[in-house]
Amino acid sequence: MSKILITYQIPEAGEEKLRGAGHDVTVHEGSALIEPAALAAALKEYDGILTLLTEKLGADELAEAGDQLKVIANYSVGYDNIDVPAATAKGITVTNTPGVLNDAVAEHAIALLVSLARRVVEADQFTRDGKYEGWRPQLLMGTSLTGKTLGIVGLGRIGSEVAKRAKNGFGMKIAYNDLKPNTDFEAETEATYYENLDDMLPEMDAISVHVPLLDATHHLINADRLATMKESALLVNTSRGPVIDEDALVMALQNDVIRGAALDVFEDEPKLKPGLAELPNVIITPHIASGTIETRSAMAELAADNIIAVLAGEKPPTPVTK
Ligand code: GLV
User: Is 157 marked active-site?
Assistant: First the structure.
């Protein structure tokens, strides 16, 4: 029996699996996130830790981990909060939860895109505010998505699901930028590959961002790139906040450089950059793209499966550690 810490209450399925496998499971209590000092202490005490994407485990923290710690299972697909080489150097396997959240995140990206194009949030507020005085020919006009081009920045599992939904559900044309082309995807979606992001951005009616946060993707969408986009362009981000220079985005939106943005992630989460929330052409949701009952449960089970496998000396289903 190994000692496992779950650093925050997650759907029960995960905890049940771990207990079912005979482990001694502790769940960090309460609505507050675990304190860094308590997490540091846990690194010396537990054999496996199930972490949240908000918990930073850098080289300094991991250097202090005890020899007993064998696995850190991050409860997310992104793992930019963990220094994986530092964990590997300590013999700790890091895992994440890819795959099970593709559909949910893609659905949310599409929800944001449609809401932005059709001004759903603005219109809802307008109606609630008692401003609706009857049908008018040009009231709160949005833009159509049908026939427009959506540019996917980062054609991974999630980006390709967004593209398929945009094409099959809304009749959008698809373009994508990634390190290399994907011919199967192109055959399925008739998508156009852009090797260079700078060539793609000026051509797009909408952009959906799906790259992981790396040094190379930090502020990938910056003031210079925003300036090359169409004035009518819509920007959606369900990846990681720092991929977009949020100050530059606020300025671009204030100056009508692009038409609108919908963000599920922020540069200094949970804080928003000054001015962002005041903009009518912005939709903001609190990092809930994978937040469906089905998906968050599946993520809990996958994280538990990863822990169980590593502690049994087996290869985990979704390791990040090579
Ligand atoms: C959520 O942002 C995730 O990375 O799973």
Answer: no
Residue 88 three-state SS: helix
- Quick one: which atom of ligand 1 is closest to the CA of 238? 2
Q: Locate the ligand 1 atom nearest the alpha carbon of residue 76 and give its number.
A: 5
Q: Is 275 in the pocket of ligand 1 (CB under 6 A)?
A: no
Q: Is the pTM here over 0.90, yes or no?
A: yes
Write the CATH number of the domain with boundaries 3-99+293-311: 3.40.50.720
Fold annotation for 102-284: Rossmann fold (3.40.50)
The yes-or-no verdict on residue 322 having pLDDT over 90 is no
Residue of the CA atom closest to atom 3 of ligand 1: 76
In the chain, where the domains are located: 3-99+293-311, 102-284
Alpha helices in 101-203 (DSSP H): 102-117, 120-128, 157-170, 183-189, 197-200
**Is 240 annotated as catalytic?**
yes
How many angstroms is it from 238 CA to the middle of ligand 1? Answer: 9
What tens digit of pLDDT does each residue of 92-119 get?
999 999 999 999 999 999 999 999 999 9
The whole-angstrom separation of Cα 16 and Cα 239 is 29
